[in-house]
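Hey all, sorry for the wall of text incoming. These are the two entities for the joint prediction.
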Amino acid sequence: MKKPKTLKPTLRERNRYILFQVISEEPIVYCDLESAIWNACLNFFGELGSSQMSLWIIKNLYDEKKQIGVIRCNNKSVTKVLSALGLLNKLGDIRLTVKILKVSGTIKGLHMK
Amino acid sequence: MDFYDLHVHSVFSEGKSSIEEIANIASRLGYKGMCFSEYFRGRGRIEKLKKMIKRTENEAGIKIYLGFEARNSKELTKLVKLRREFDVLLVHGGDVDLNRIAVETPEVDILTHPELERNDSGLDQVSAKFAAKNKVAIEVNFREILINYKKSRSKILSFIRRNIMLAKKFHAPIILCSGAVTHWELKDPYCLISMANQLGLELKEAKDAISKIPKSIISQAKERKNKKWIMPGVKVVE
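and here's what came out:
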């Protein structure tokens, strides 16, 4: 399938990467966490509000052992995403809370290693 | 930046987690200090609580303060008399009359959730003026938002937004607290700041509401414990 041309840097959205850690009773897998974060955003901001965030929970950067992950959103909706993360309280029967480690403009800037 | 959460309940009041569990999570989340707000059940419990708090403070490496939450005007008058024996005096908001008494009492530090179980915000411009005059902080309680869903959550959000608007207009202090009952309800300070930002506070104001204002309440409490202190602005000079 043919892809459209990549946009010029000036036309592209500016991204922010949020490094977070899940503190929970039991380990949490990526799929459950992704749906929980999306549900928190959809419930709190609605479909229109969530669409304006350009939310992406990056799968290959989620460390299931340390429970550390990265969320990408645009630069204007960092506070929205953080407030939605604060509303994560339960995942099924597992209680959890989220710790924000860092917010950066690049993945490299998160210093994950 | 130093963050403080001055409204957390442990097993000694309505909470479900022990002091140790809460202190450990709070320290992991990056709080520098926290206050256990308990219900007043006699003077004898104050010393017992103080001992437990001191022990946990050393283990968890976080500053812990003792606060009492008055649930009615009788409790409030009792607690005002014992004001020097603990750090923070909170008033359990929700009742308009109690909200009004709280903001008119200079010994009170925090008026918690003034909109609790109400169909209005629980504050008016007169109360906001008194809160500013007596430096009673109006609380934005995160637990109220967390445990409610859909219609009730949206109502609470609109009431909190109104209280923030009134507090900003009359320069009354605003404080951000988790109001946690279990250690899982404690939230990252940046999540609280972001939520307050969504509700009408500027980012700087929201940061002050979780760091600067609680810090000033704590420094007042330290001043109050000094034997030379008589009342706000008055102390013995030798």
